[in-house]
Design goal:
nine-stranded mixed β-sheet; about 35% helix
């Protein structure tokens, strides 16, 4: 693993990472991954023996409207919602947010896989960012079979946890194949994803073999080591330093990648929290997010363009 010197910065919330106690971050991680609900998260943060624990907790809740970086009306892109078949998935049909660049066609395709709460505005913005960079981006909504992203992360998290997880992975696999074979696609396919989505990207790299050409997961659980020999796409993995649950899955993964001769890089960004790329909460780290995104774009261009 490689280390990169980065620093936390102020967010749209008026509270920086440095002002939030690590115990509140740890509680938020439990909340984000569905181990406690919002009420328990706020109550336990308020009960900590620190001043302003509740305010720190409230500051960590996402503010999506303040985090948009590429407008829906940006002239570089054309975005729309599309439906497509998903045999073997949770309902047989999927819906996704498709963003195409207006300047070029066909374009390299990139799948953008959401966190554990469905297709929220942050993930849609990531798809627009890729579209503005010349990629045909598809951000599938794994919650479509149960009505789609409900407009808030709490309900989204509950809905996603209630899905058949094997069928949800099938929905993501079908989504990857849909965008790879889209009429506007060059036929080259990459994938990036965040948290749950990062784990899905690692899974897809193994499941798709030579069908996928590049993968850039963010703080996603590693693929099963037994599946690693099937990975053909070069991997670029981004990890947060303060993310023990995810990071402990990587030593065995890296050993298997080395043994298989699979091209890969793993970057650990010092001082960062799980979710550092998501600019809707104070876990966001501008320098780490910018550097990792520049690396992701370079990785995708190298292997897809």
């Amino acid at each position: 693993m490689s280390d990169v010197n980065v620093a936390a910065n102020p967010s749209v919330h008026g509270i920086t990472q440095h002002e939030i106690d690590q115990r509140v971050f740890d509680l938020y991680d439990e909340y984000c991954h569905g181990r406690i609900d919002r009420r328990e998260f706020l109550a336990r943060a308020a009960a900590l023996s620190i001043a302003g624990g509740l305010a720190m907790a409230q500051a960590l809740l996402p503010r999506y409207a303040q985090a948009q970086t590429v407008s829906f009306t940006d002239p570089r892109i054309k975005a729309s919602y599309v439906q497509y078949p998903s045999p073997g998935g949770n309902s047989g049909t999927m819906r996704g947010y498709l963003v195409q660049p207006t300047a070029t066609a066909p374009s390299p395709a990139v799948l953008v896989v959401h966190e554990n709460r469905g297709l929220n505005p942050y993930i849609e913005d990531v798809a627009r960012r890729l579209g503005a960079e010349g990629f045909l981006a598809l951000a599938p909504d794994g919650l479509f079979p149960v009505g789609g992203y409900p407009g808030n992360d709490d309900d989204g998290r509950t809905l996603q946890a209630g899905l058949d997880q094997t069928k949800l992975r099938t929905d993501m696999l079908n989504s990857a194949r849909f965008v790879k074979n889209h009429a506007l696609s060059s036929g080259k396919l990459g994938a990036t994803g965040f948290c749950y989505g990062g784990g899905v990207v690692n899974y897809l790299a193994a499941a798709m073999g030579e069908e996928i050409n590049a993968a850039a997961p963010y703080y996603g659980v590693a693929a099963e080591t037994t599946s690693v020999p099937r990975i053909k796409a070069p991997l670029l993995c981004h990890l947060a330093e303060k993310d023990e649950r995810i990071n402990e899955t990587y030593p065995a993964f890296e050993a298997a990648l080395k043994a298989a001769g699979t091209p890969y890089l793993v970057y650990v960004y010092p001082g960062t929290q799980h979710g550092f790329h998501n600019n809707s909460t104070p876990r966001y780290d501008e320098e780490a997010a910018k550097l990792s995104w520049e690396r992701t774009l370079a990785h995708l261009r190298k292997y897809l363009v």
